[in-house]
Amino acid sequence: MDEGEMKLAKIADKLLYPAALLASLSIWLVAVRAPLWLDETLSYWQVSGGFSKIWSRSVQMPSSFAYLYILWFVKSVLGSQEIALRIPSLLAMLAASYFLFRAAQEIFDTEIAFISCILFCLNANVVFAAIDVRPYAFALLMTNLAIFALLRWTARNDMRYAILCGAGAAGILYFQYLFGAILPAFAIYYLALRGRSIRASAGQLAALLSSFALVCAPLIWPFVELFRTRQAHVFENDRRELSVLRTTLFPFKLLIIFAGTVVVAALLRKVKWPGRDCSLAALLCPLLAIVPLAILFGISAATPTHVFIPRYCLVAVPGGALMWGLLIFRIDSRWLRGICCVCLVAITVFEYFSLPSARQHRASFKQAYEFVNADVAKDKAPVLICSAFTESRFEPMPADRTSESALVSQLSYYPVNAPVVLLPVALNDEAIRIGSQAVSAAAQRRQRFLAVGNSGSPVLEWLAGYSRGTFMAQRIADFEGTVVVEFQPLVQ
């Protein structure tokens, strides 16, 4: 490297890449004030009853009790505003980015570490999880910590990092069991690296496994309970595997910009072919990206449990960022690598700050419930609300909002100020029983009522058909797919 290139390297490492990283982090804040969506209201409900109820409420639906205790503490200190509830995830994702940067430094150099970290921060699923009132940012934090500890351990044979790797790997499971799909990648990498010399490091390997088992011990009963009730948490497979794979590992903008950069580099003869200098990265990075995705896809293909969805595929994003760093490392020009990175950051940041849809975190009940509260303010007409939880297909619906059932959580943060009747998400026997009783009660009092549910809900369609001749059903509002239907009694 000549003097000019050394000066460019210093400028890039001290100014260009840190500025690009800060710009990447800024897009996390675009939707930080957005209303809570369904699963976030569940997290709020699980901590809203106080410290003593967190454990019992966490076992009702698959939830990370470790995350809930953190959320409860932050809520107690900072309050219950949306932005306050999102601070834990923001801080956890910042820490996750730091450990990914450190892991990339172990494999590459500082420049590629910056690029890998920037690609991680720009990933759409990471941007979503960074402000989500759910445990996925913490799961990524533990994942990246475990990757960093694994690299340090295998490079230095240090007992401390062996223990840290085992504890970090176990810590992943405290926040999301399915992120454990990355653990086989750790094992494959270690066996490939040390297959013939395992005996020499048997003591450190035993320490790693012992720390993993010790930290995992409190998770045995919650996992058994989750496995026992697994059928109640099954998602319908909407067959979007290619879309999930693309957003996880192959974002369209990154593909186009990288392809253009490679073409220019090839014309300038600035493409390096893989050599022994990248053998470590060539082994580890694809493993971290491909193995967890293959496991999640296999579970979805072989069982009714659909887990190949963006929030679970997040586990492969660190490996994907490192894999792209490996590819960009083969471009033998700091100028081209810098231009590639800056173009991607500029386009992504522009999109997030210019598109109104980027300011919405996910569909929320807030607007619909505010509309309902204004509509029923005078007569307090009853409101039938279709649950949005898939668990409502199997669990009995709570009779009132004071119930300790998690199904009331969608009314916890944004309440409805009127008598509420909760219905299942699916049209089953319980939906027909509860719905018919509510319609009969309203007919006897000749009282109008409202119904709220997803657009195209079979329960809303059944209510309209069942009440025909007694009530006139009319859709009066639609908020991002959440519809409000008014049932007016017919004059007889």
Topology (SSEs and partners):
Blueprint: H1 3-26, H2 38-48, H3 51-58, H4 65-78, H5 82-107, H6 110-122, H7 124-130, H8 136-156, H9 159-175, H10 183-194, H11 202-216, H12 220-228, H13 241-249, H14 252-267, H15 279-302, H16 310-313, H17 317-329, H18 334-354, H19 366-375, E1 383-386, E2 420-423, H20 429-445, E3 449-454, H21 458-466, E4 471-479, E5 482-489
Parallel strand pairs: 1-2, 1-3
Antiparallel strand pairs: 3-5, 4-5
Explain the overall architecture:
By secondary structure, the chain is of the alpha/beta class. It folds into two domains: 357 residues, no CATH class; 124 residues. It is 61% helix and 6% strand. Strands 2-1-3-5-4 form a five-stranded mixed beta sheet, sandwiched between helices. Strand 4 and strand 5 form a beta hairpin. The longest helix is centred in the N-terminal third of the chain and has 26 residues. The relative contact order is 0.11.
Q: Please trace the helix and strand order, writing H or E for each element.
A: HHHHHHHHHHHHHHHHHHHEEHEHEE
Q: Helical region count?
A: 21
- Biggest β-sheet, characterized? 5 strands, mixed
Content of β-strand: 5-15%
Which structural class should the secondary elements be placed in?
alpha/beta
Radius of gyration: 26 Å
Total strand segments: 5
Poorly predicted spans: none
Distance between the termini: 91 Å
Give the % helix. Answer: 55-70%
Mean pLDDT: 90
Global shape: globular
Number of domains: 2
Widest sheet: strand ordering: 2-1-3-5-4
